User: What shape does this take?
Amino acid sequence: MLNPEDVVAKKDALIATAKRCFELRLQTNAGGNLSVRLDSRDAIVIKPSGVGFNECTRDNLQVVHLDGAIEPSEHKPSKDLDFHLDLYRIREGINAIVHCHSPWATGYTSAGMEIPCLTVQTIEKIGRMPLIPLSPVGGPQTEVEISPVFQDPKIRAAVLANHGTVGVGKTLMEAQYLVEIIEETAQIAYVRDTLLAARGLPTPDAPRLGTPQEVKAAVKAGALT
Ligand SMILES: [Zn+2]
Assistant: This one.
């Protein structure tokens, strides 16, 4: 049973997130997609096909049940609908998904490279963002390629070869922050690797951050004084 007030609230939250993505240039044109789970848990609000992030309105966003049934809409469902629905089905803790074709990250994935988690924030907030290859049958990644990666409850973000980024979260803002961090990290990694290459220096290993317990123990032992 849909709660009309919740539907409106979730649509408004999605519109705000979509605008932020557009303004940050994480997603131009009508590509990419984003969705949010309704409080009833068994349905989502999602951007339909052919609507840009900057053009999302209460009238064009779609409500889709997790069994795939779409509430009446003039718009075509998104090509990404099946992978969004699948991630909500397999991970109870996922309440929002943001998928963008942001340029720095997509440049990395088009080179067939994982984006290294090299900043403190990326290590803490993401840990690892696997690179998911294109569908072997041709065309973009679908739930067949994406869902197995997100079966691991520790995975919060992934990048899609020749395609873009995916962030998931308990809220739209959490998922949004992840796609922002991915894009920022890709840009930082490019600068680092360009500077290292210009000086003929090797790529350093990824930094390892201690857990809060390890840091506490080290301080106690006087290792950091
Ligand atoms: Zn896409």
Observations:
- The CA atoms of residues 46 and 193 lie 37 Å apart.
